[in-house]
Write a structure and sequence with these properties.
The complex is a heterodimer of chains A (277) and B (322). Chain A has 277 residues and is an alpha/beta fold. Helices cover 40% and strands 10% of the residues of chain A. Chain A has ten helices and five strands, in the order αααβααβαβααβαβα. In chain A, strands 1-2-3-5-4 form a five-stranded parallel beta sheet, with helices on both faces. In chain A, helix 6 links the parallel strand 2 and strand 3. In chain A, helix 1 packs across helix 3, helix 1 packs across helix 4 and helix 5 runs parallel beside helix 6. The longest helix of chain A has 22 residues. Chain A is globular, with a radius of gyration of 18 Å. The N and C termini of chain A lie close together (12 Å). The relative contact order of chain A is 0.17. With 322 residues, chain B is α/β, with parallel strands linked by helices. Chain B folds into two domains: 166 residues, Rossmann fold (3-Layer(aba) Sandwich), CATH 3.40.50; 126 residues, Rossmann fold, CATH 3.40.50. Chain B contains eleven helices and 14 strands. In chain B, the strands form three sheets. Chain B has a seven-stranded mixed beta sheet with strand order 3-2-4-5-7-6-12, sandwiched between helices. In chain B, strand 6, helix 6 and strand 7 form a beta-alpha-beta unit. In chain B, helix 1 runs parallel beside helix 6. Chain B is globular. Classes of the chains: A alpha/beta (277), B alpha/beta (322). Chains A and B meet through helix 5 and helix 6 of A and helix 3 and helix 4 of B.
Chain lengths: 277, 322
Amino acid sequence: MRYTGSMSAQDLHKIANQLRGDVLQMVHAAQAGHVAGPLSSADLFSILYFGGVVDPTQDKIVLSCGHYCPIQYAALARAGYFPVEELASFMQIGSRLPGHPERGSVAGIEVSAGPLGQGVSVATGMALGMKLSNLKFSNSQIKEPRVYCVLSDGELQEGQVWEAFNFAVRRQLDNLIFILDRNKIQIENYVSQLATYGEVVGRLEAFGLNVLETDGNNIDKLKVMIEKAKTMQSAPTMVVANTVGGKGVSFMENKPAWHDQVPTKDELEKALKELNV
Amino acid sequence: MYNDKYLIPEWRTPSKKAIRTGMGEGLVVSGGEHEDIVVLTADLAESTRVREFAEHYPERFFDVGVAEQNMIGVAAGLSFSGYVPFASSYATFSPGRSWEQIRVSVCLSRANVKIIGSHAGVSSGKNGPSHQGTEDIALMRVLPNMVVLAPADAQQAKAIIEAAYNHEGPVYIRTTRPETPNFTKPLKFEIGKAYKYREGKDISLVACGIQVYDALIVAEELAKEGVECEVINVSSIKPLDEQTILGSAKKTGRVVTIEDHQINGGLGSVIAELLGERLPTKIKRIGLNDRFGLSGEWEDVYKAVGLDRVSIKQAVIDYLHE
């Protein structure tokens, strides 16, 4: 099924679960890949690709936490960027859907990612380039294009991310919107067990970002926050989306083991039933 | 015997200019012609010589602060927004510290990013080995899609900017700190071409960077002793002009490589790999042999590591007598 037109919150929720189902089937078929992050961010991807907040004719969506790619592939396919059947080729030889994103493998994959932190800098450079080009047309009524960059909370442990924040704030890139999928787990453990941040919001604010915090698995709330982020000025905005790792499948939720565990056939069937897809 | 197509008439008594300075001049020239050129640095505008570009085109210049990894990512992003970024730092920091960003954000993505590594080699002198980029050729040439260029003088460095701009894809440009002979004619730089500056039948001296001029002088001295050297400037390390190297090795049967870089992974490896596969030839590699440089006046450092002309000449003579 391909989705078009204006979507209600209920529609977006349904799409999010469909994307979750796609992810689990891809990972099961490939017998590899990541689960918890793609599931925790499914509501976000539903909003970004189907919620009408992003202008696909000029805005760019950058996935910095590259291991989330099954959810982006699923969203791109369901949005008509390539045939949905192609999702079955995830990670296979000759596929346009490699294990981590490679820029241009299919339309809509803007950056090569996987080593965490890199996409945050690249998104910053893209937003800077858009600002620079816009200067030339400052008298026109052209709407400024934006970059939406999705990152994960384990990713915040990479120093490069904070280098990029410094620069994006210094350059006042208010056409740059970060969305942090804060699912609180990473490959080995809970984020809080591995690297304690104190207050994430406070740290981000201290770096000069506009910070908005919300429930990232609540379609209505998250959509409102992203819309609000578009109105923020003078600095890039970070939407801290508090989510649950493995969201939508009871036995996968909030368990670090499901970061990159492959569901068995049995588990897949159970999960798809829970997701109602 | 000397190729006056490439060498200026007064090449034996040339003026001096730093290779980094020539590169900076090239940026101003090409930046004036191409509005999509942008320049980045990580708090090293002055010493990497991109300051002049910044003064001419401030709106297209970005100092990211001391953050080389972010500099490379931002450069990749700018290229995706339609610009042609030149990102400049010391070679030991970028590509040194920013290697993985160059690998994934630039090379895997085929981003149209140009990377300038200044203060390459032990010729950067007094700041010592932590600041001497002596592994950058190895780090860059191993990456798929990357072009690796090491100009021999300021004139070539100036012309390389336009060549790098015209090449769609990642390019690494190696520059050096000291004032060194500016001995080549102002010509268009050709990526993938090795420049033969002297014809000889006895031995091939294959060099890059500052060492090309030294090779010419050593060849001049050896000629007085009856040894005719061929001198080849491999300023395009990747892609390599294999035909010119193979033709010379076939003629002389003896090859010496000279570089201010680790011979393991550097020009010495490049030539050894080519000859090993295509035309097995015993070669001598002059450069840093699995050691760091040291702090000091750069000419003194060259003496200490065997890169001064006297040492190079002696190494060539020893090799001839092996």
